[in-house]
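ingest -> validate -> predict -> emit
validate: passed (alphabet ok, no gaps, 467 aa)
predict: started
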Amino acid sequence: MTPEPNSVPASGQRATAREFFAVVFRRRWIIIGLFLVTTATVLAVTLTTPVVYISVGQVLVRRGEQQGIMSPDRRVMNDWETELGSEVETVKSWPVLQRTQKLLDRELHGGPRLLLRSGQVDAEVTGKSNALSIAYVDSDPEVAQRVCDALIRAYIDFRQSEQPSYPQRFFDNETERAQAELQRWTETRRQYANQTGTVDLPEQRRNAIFLRATFEQRRNDLSAQLAEAQSEQRIMRELQQRPGIDTPMLGLPTLNENAISDLKRRVMEQQTRIADLRERYRDESPEVANAQVTLDTLRTMLGREVSARLEISRSRAQIIRSRLDVVERDIALLDEQLKGMPDREARLAEMDHEISSWKSRYDELIKNSDQARINENTVPLISVYLLNPAGAAQPRNARDYVRLALAPAFSLVVGVGLAFFIDGLDLTVHTAGQAEEELRLPVLAAVTERKRSGWRSRTHRTEKTPA
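emit:
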């Protein structure tokens, strides 16, 4: 009975266990090779990778930084990722590693020197927080813990040293400079005041103006007195030259005023007596001659007294002139002082300004220095806080034998899948099902496989020919 050409046998639609094992047997070297390669690779990597230990500690980074030593306020940073990313790089930076190495060298205690390797330092941010995990990896767990602890302490010390602290050197230098300038300007002003005789310039100006007014008044009085004395002397000399005028008696009374008056009275009396004698005697008589001699003597005495009075008047004028010269000299000195006072005032104002400026600067430096010391001792400058010290080192790549066994097992699964994939690419008919599928005819019988032996033993697949 011949089946229809389009009919497909039911046996060709399903694969049997025998066919499955046949494919596995045919492609057994692919599966075994992949299994052996995977197993050898896993064993080689596992056995050649040394076991290392990691020690981890945590610090808290305080966000924001102090603006300056004079201000206790802190400036908050808004870029959280950039800020903590910078802190991660700071942990791995050269200054922190150098501080860590110095700490390790100081803590030798007679043991071997520990060398810090930058490639074994690790740091990361713990979640979305300000906590920073700092770790160190080493093959020795004790070394890993010690280095991690030193690394954390070095990082905290570095952050503290980078914070603004009291600038002792700056304040000392600036204070000494301000004090030196203040002393220099004070000494300059003192020397200038001694050289110019300046004590209180405004008061000295007022006194000089008052003295000049007084001297001006005295000069006017002396000028009037001098003019009066010179006029008296001139008039007296002119009257003295006139014979018909009596002896001049101008000016102020003098000590010999009574003597002059007595001499003038006696001269008049003698003239009257001579006139009486001439009436009784002749001019050649001894009585008239003696009376005339007495009159001449009295007139001579009166002339000497008048000459002395004229000399006294001239001397008085000279005295007034000398006093006037002294007053004028004093006025000239006062004028010179008043003329130089604006320059002295400007110079003193400049020096007083410098003294005031340097004194204010010195006081401000002292005040700021005290404020900086107060801020340093009262405002916390630490921005990093230790949360967890370096913990005991834990193995990082421990050998997990369960995971080691999973890799060869998965390689078997992959090998079986690869075997069926390669077998599917092979177009050779190997089974009765494949023959029925290709010919669309039922298989009546199959010839068993035949083995050939030779100097190259190999197995040949026997084609199953449909009957």
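Strands lie at 53-61, 65-68, 71-75, 121-125, 131-138, 384-388, 394-395.
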